[in-house]
Amino acid sequence: MDNLLEIHNLHARIGDREILKGIDLSLKRGEIHAVMGPNGAGKSTLNAVLTGRSDYEVTEGTVLYDGKDLLSMAPEERSWAGLFLSFQYPVEIPGVTITAFMKAAVQARRKAAGLPEMKTSEFLKLLKEKMAFVQMKPEFAKREVNVGFSGGEKKRNEIFQMAMLDPTLSILDETDSGLDVDALKIVADGVNALRSPEKSAIIITHYQKLLEYVQPDVVHVLKAGRIVHTGGREVIEAIEKAGFDQF
Amino acid sequence: MGYGNYRDPFVGLRPHYTVQAGEKLALTFVILPGESRDADLFIDLVGEGAEAEIKALYLCGGDERVRFRILMHHRAPGCVSHQLINGIAGGTSKVAFDGRIVVAPDAQQTEAYQENHNILLSGQAHVDTTPQLEIYADDVKCSHGATIGQLDEEALFYMRTRGVPEKEARVLQMLSFLSPVIPEGREEEVERAIRTL
To answer: Domain boundaries in chain B?
Structure first.
């Protein structure tokens, strides 16, 4: 199968307000795509629908991930299938440490794949290695997930989890997140390090800055609930020069 | 003496525990699913510097009736008491918590804290919580707090997107909520009980 993700004529609404009005997008294995658009274009809704949030209703269209019907899968099943969706606003989980959280996630994914439980020593080694990879201080292993984290630390924790879970497709919602340059670099390094012919990523953003560090193969412009233009890196430059009105 | 409207809440009642000067009383309660119980606890701190630490947890998943009545009476100066009662009510269970801290006029330099936190798992479960402070001394540190909430849906969803199945995510969250009151060595027993809810 050539296309890892195929979105066809996707319509979605929240309440009685239609936000996505027929999205078409195909992504091949190994590609990095950027979805850019002005505020209110539907960027966050697209991410929410792909994540599996129940407050958005898909009224029309299909999403095939690796040939499977993504929209019928529970959020955890999407993760088991190799999808990773970063949150624009990562959630705090008081009382649950990063170690306990990641252990539950890793073991559940192994179970779903029919693999035996990972040994604790092996798990801790992996945890240490990935924390070092995103330059997270070792003491964070015992911290409660995102509790009292700065914006940059939360972002780093998202990329750490991405590295731990080794996804086939990462979808990063960087919409309006007002990241400083350091946080941007963490995200970019994470995405770039996971680049391989089998792995893909979609970066949803209206922030050109991130795309200086991660070079997307394909750039889509999302406007009023539709992809109105698709091209290469030259699209980023065009947006920088003349904004979204030209599309 | 300036007792004002101070009434001895122990009149007619025999305290379950009387803690003398320099002694420390530490009690933990664990009420597991299927158990209906009245947990009454009247504690008298009668000697200077006496201490009491109460921890309790309850788990209800059916039609249990659980009632806590905790009376912490600071009668002597310089006593310290801590109370933490956390529990989870599901099914059609009914839980009532009545907690009162009384600080007698002579019990200066008292430190008394009481917290009761509850999670409702179903719309049919019911929790009533009434924490009360009666303070008749002026040099004291006292606080009480009570909450009734639900599992955090956002956190559950976040965990699920990382591959933690919904049921496991709920167990993790309940365990973390109860962890401050789980007695040492009973973690597995409590986890097993949580899984039945």
So the answer is: 17-150
